[in-house]
Amino acid sequence: MTIVSGQSNNSGSAQNRDRAVQTGAPYGGAACTTSVNCRSYLNPASFSNNAAGTYGSIVKGSYVGPHYVDWDASIARKFAFSERTNLQFRAEYFNLLNHTNLGDPATTVGTTLGRITSTSPQNWAGTAPQNDPRIAQMSLKLIF
Fold first, then answer.
1. Alpha-carbon distance 131 to 2, whole Å?
2. pTM check: above 0.85
């Protein structure tokens, strides 16, 4: 993640968003004023807008978001009826440990910096959406 300034083109370099200036420890703090649907991650008091005519001190990609944890598992069993006919039973589980994956916090200096207000929006092709609770599916396939 890269923390950007809340001011547009403060450096005068025709950039839409300049990088912010770090003034203290980046993680922790009290970004949320309420605990309902909000989790503090970055310390908003540790970042400020860059001064006019200067660039910020934040390097692109300096910070990491919350860790992503996902365990998917499957099990299959084949039952043979004859030499050429089989029945396959398959059970698949997505987010087996039912872990909540949080989204990245807001990264613009201002009122919402450091707040996490959503779960992870990641969705990888061929699987259930990764921000859903535990999902199980079972199937039978007749092979002849």
1. 23
2. no
Give residue-wise pLDDT tens across range 32-91: 777 677 888 888 888 888 888 778 888 888 888 888 888 899 999 999 999 999 999 999
21-34 b/e (C-beta count within 10 Å ≥ 16 → b): bbeeebeebebbee
Q: Which helix (H) or strand (E) holds 142?
A: strand 135-143
Q: Which of 119, 121, 117 has the alpha carbon at shortest distance from 32? A: 117
Which positions ≥6 away from 42 have C-beta within 8 Å? Answer: 3, 26, 27, 29, 31, 63, 105, 107, 113, 114
DSSP letter, residue 35: S
What are the start-end ranges of the H helices in the chain? none
